[in-house]
């Protein structure tokens, strides 16, 4: 199945997402805890999909939006799924503008996560 | 799932709350500290996500409301005020309480309504944004037609072989982020082709100003079927109807399609996923077990080294060297896993100082340096309370009220500094305040009144000795018992705690200048450096930390003063203890009397005073693994523990503190 990189500063969220995705038959090829690390790892592992929390530490240096931007520059075909809280709509919109494929709001509903991941990976015209 | 994630949730949320608290203190001191504000926001945000996922709704609700307020602060729509800081502190405490309840697996009875309302008060307009959002009603009964201007454009596109269609898109009713969802769909459509017209307008759609459905006229080279499939694939799109636009314009009924139901593929396929672990949490018990094993290994190593030395077997020598190197490295490495930065204990102090000084109507700045220095976990856990006690003392008795300070010509804001530093094999923590200091005269007066010393004794004691009295049990200089300190738990408790950890408490104080406490602590409690000495037939270990020096003395140099044996070393009179007599070790020989090149004397130090220990022989320096004594011999005077030597013999570890008595 697909190689997925999980970006989230909370170990809890990473584990949760990983568990659901692995159960779906995907491979978690990398995990990152901040934006900078996410970009670095993206360069080397080139995942099929990135799940990205947009509010993360090291915000001054590079924030989640910055990471989306960097990743999209590295690979315009990169598939990024934003995982965010409901109050972050403007940031989510910005991420979509930069090329993020979809978003999920926390609390993450496992069923929705599965559907969204499946839909991004099978986008017929994407 | 709940159970397996509970532990991670608890420990992570605890960290976040601690972080929030620390940053709040920083923010209060400097309202322009954007970094701290961002950090608080991030922590609150993450906490909200985590708790919502775990189903802890109250935590999620409260942190959500906090986040809203924080966002206002962050975007500078609201100013950081003391009231806001206060409510945020209060809410953090409430969250802490929730976490505590979860940890103890008990049902929370805390009501958050009041706190949420309090937070709400600070928010703009007092009304949730959703209610003020204007709703542009979209008629669903009548289909929308293309504007005449766009009709020409549509016709031109069709003529050049492109498809023009009208897409009516229905978004899921429970869609949580409508704006973002709409924006995503629009972005998606723009990738497929050109949007000719939209109803409501693109701007309204992007801003979420539509009920559940919107209509788009799209020019695309993709077929109707492909567009349909593509849009439907976007999550939270409930239904799509695509109708080719005929430039002659005919209305079409909207066909709602059943939501795409995706069967949950729950196939549990075993997948190898290897990732580099960069940090981990280790159960404390496991660490302790490993530590114990390493202790045993160290003993085995020493045994081997000694065997080889005596048997002189060449090849074994090298192996023993390797073993030596390996175990030493392993021991060092293992030691590191027990270490935690001092900030673990020091960070919450900002909050402590804030709360205490507020209660006392005093203004106090706290300055912490060296909080990154690492200490043994056990030491760290143990010194938290003594440190807080000293901090309380400083705020309670040390720092004066702003008025009093001003009258004295001091800065109305008092200052407490905590300085952690690492010295050879020791950690030193210094707590100083620039308050009123301890009055020697008052201490003297009180000590006499309390019968701790007689008037005659008071006359003979120097200032330093008088000051030392405040660390004696049952002494407190506070005029009255306050809420925070002076409840009979005094400096003596701090002192005893430190000594039980193999550390020391020293202090100095100057009237109206301030008081300074010095805490000296061992780096670790598990393995210590010790000097092995022989007393008659027994081997004793004296912690190196306590030793000032070892010298050889001549019998005639020992003098008698008031029935005590003393010796003069560099103009200092040092009392001498005969270890065999002190510990009741039977004499096996009269060696003390016969040695010619001098008697070995180990000079130990406590409270800046010295004591000479008379021993038979100095064996040497060695790392020893401290084994606690079983309870039935625990209280033996002069003995702190035991260790196993290379040859398997047991050596007792001297307890310097209990010797002086």
Summarize the topology.
The complex is a heterodimer of chains A (126) and B (661).
Chain A: E1 3-7, H1 11-23, E2 27-32, H2 35-45, E3 49-53, H3 64-74, E4 80-84, H4 89-98, E5 102-105, H5 110-121
Parallel strand pairs in A: 1-2, 1-3, 3-4, 4-5
Chain B: H1 2-29, H2 34-54, H3 57-74, H4 82-103, H5 113-122, H6 129-132, H7 148-159, E1 163-171, H8 178-192, E2 193-199, H9 202-206, E3 213-220, H10 224-233, E4 237-244, H11 284-311, H12 314-337, E5 339-341, H13 343-346, H14 349-359, E6 364-369, E7 374-376, H15 377-398, H16 402-407, E8 414-423, E9 426-433, H17 440-449, H18 455-460, H19 463-468, H20 491-500, E10 504-510, E11 514-522, E12 527-535, E13 538-543, E14 547-553, E15 559-561, E16 564-569, E17 572-578, H21 579-583, H22 591-594, E18 599-606, E19 609-614, E20 617-625, E21 639-644, E22 650-654, H23 656-659
Parallel strand pairs in B: 6-8, 13-22, 17-19
Antiparallel strand pairs in B: 1-3, 1-4, 2-3, 5-7, 8-9, 9-11, 10-11, 12-13, 12-20, 14-18, 15-16, 16-17, 18-19, 21-22
């Amino acid at each position: 199945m697909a190689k997925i990189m999980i970006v989230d500063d909370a170990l809890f969220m990473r584990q949760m997402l990983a568990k659901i995705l692995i159960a779906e038959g995907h491979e978690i090829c990398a995990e990152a805890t901040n934006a900078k690390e996410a970009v670095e790892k993206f360069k080397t592992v080139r995942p099929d999909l990135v799940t990205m929390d947009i509010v993360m530490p090291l915000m001054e240096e590079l924030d989640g939006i910055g990471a989306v931007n960097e990743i999209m520059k590295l690979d315009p075909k990169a598939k990024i799924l934003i995982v965010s809280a409901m109050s972050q709509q403007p940031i989510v919109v910005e991420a979509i503008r930069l090329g993020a494929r979809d978003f999920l709001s926390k609390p993450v509903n496992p069923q929705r996560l599965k559907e969204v991941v499946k839909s991004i990976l099978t986008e017929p015209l994407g | 799932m709940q159970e397996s994630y509970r532990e991670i949730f608890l420990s992570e949320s605890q960290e976040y709350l601690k972080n929030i608290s620390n940053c709040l203190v920083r923010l209060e001191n400097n309202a322009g500290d954007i970094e701290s504000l961002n950090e608080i926001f991030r922590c609150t945000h993450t906490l909200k996500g985590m708790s919502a996922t775990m189903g802890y709704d109250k935590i999620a609700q409260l942190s959500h409301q906090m986040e809203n307020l924080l966002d206002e602060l962050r975007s500078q729509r609201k100013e950081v005020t003391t009231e806001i800081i206060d409510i945020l502190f209060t809410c953090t405490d409430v969250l802490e309480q929730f976490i505590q309840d979860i940890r103890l697996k008990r049902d929370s009875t805390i009501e958050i309504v009041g706190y949420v309302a309090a937070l709400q008060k600070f928010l703009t307009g007092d009304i949730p944004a959703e209610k003020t959002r204007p709703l542009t009603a979209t008629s669903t009964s009548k289909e929308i037609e293309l504007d005449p201007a766009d009709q020409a454009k549509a016709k031109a596109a069709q003529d050049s072989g492109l498809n023009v269609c009208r897409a009516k898109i229905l978004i899921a009713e429970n869609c949580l982020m409508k704006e973002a969802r709409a924006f995503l769909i629009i972005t998606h459509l723009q990738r497929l082709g050109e949007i000719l017209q939209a109803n409501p307008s693109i701007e309204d759609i992007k801003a979420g100003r539509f009920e559940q459905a919107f209509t788009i006229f799209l020019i695309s080279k993709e077929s109707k079927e492909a567009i349909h499939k593509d849009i439907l694939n976007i999550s939270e799109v409930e239904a799509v109807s695509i109708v080719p636009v005929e430039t002659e314009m005919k209305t079409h009924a909207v066909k709602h399609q059943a939501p795409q139901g995706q069967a949950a593929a729950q196939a549990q396929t075993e997948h190898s996923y290897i990732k580099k672990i960069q940090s981990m949490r280790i159960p404390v018990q496991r660490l302790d077990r490993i530590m114990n094993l390493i202790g045993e290994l160290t003993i085995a190593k020493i045994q081997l080294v000694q065997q080889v030395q005596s048997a002189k077997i060449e090849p074994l020598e090298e192996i023993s060297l390797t073993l030596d190197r390996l175990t030493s490295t392993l021991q060092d490495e293992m030691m590191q896993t027990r270490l935690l930065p001092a900030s673990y204990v020091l960070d919450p102090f900002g909050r402590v100082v804030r709360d205490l000084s507020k209660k006392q109507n005093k203004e106090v700045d706290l300055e912490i340096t060296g909080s990154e220095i690492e200490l043994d976990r056990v030491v760290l856990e143990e010194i938290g309370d003594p440190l807080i006690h000293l901090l309380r003392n400083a705020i309670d008795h040390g720092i004066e009220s702003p008025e009093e300070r001003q009258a004295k010509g001091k800065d109305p804001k008092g200052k407490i500094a905590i300085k952690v530093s690492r010295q050879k094999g020791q950690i030193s923590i210094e707590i100083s305040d620039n308050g009123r200091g301890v009055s020697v005269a008052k201490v003297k007066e009180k000590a006499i009144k309390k019968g701790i010393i007689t008037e005659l004794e008071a006359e003979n004691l120097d200032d330093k000795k008088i000051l030392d009295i405040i660390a004696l049990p049952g002494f407190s200089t506070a005029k009255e018992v306050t809420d925070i300190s002076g409840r009979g738990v005094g400096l003596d408790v701090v002192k005893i705690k430190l000594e039980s950890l193999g550390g020391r408490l020293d202090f100095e104080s100057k009237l109206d200048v301030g008081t300074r406490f010095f805490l000296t602590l061992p780096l670790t409690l598990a393995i210590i450096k010790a000097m092995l000495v022989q007393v008659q037939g027994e081997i004793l270990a004296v912690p190196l930390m306590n030793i000032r020096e070892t010298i050889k003395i001549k019998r005639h140099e020992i003098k008698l003063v008031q029935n005590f044996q003393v010796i003069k070393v560099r103009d200092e009179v040092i009392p001498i203890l005969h270890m065999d007599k002190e510990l009741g070790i039977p004499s096996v020989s009269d060696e003390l009397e016969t040695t010619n090149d001098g008697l070995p004397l180990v000079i130990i130090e406590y409270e800046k005073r010295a004591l000479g220990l008379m021993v038979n022989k100095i064996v040497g320096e060695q790392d020893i693994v401290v084994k606690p004594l079983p309870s039935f011999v625990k209280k033996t005077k002069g003995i702190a523990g035991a260790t196993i030597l290379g040859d398997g013999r047991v050596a007792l570890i001297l307890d310097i503190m209990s010797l002086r008595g």
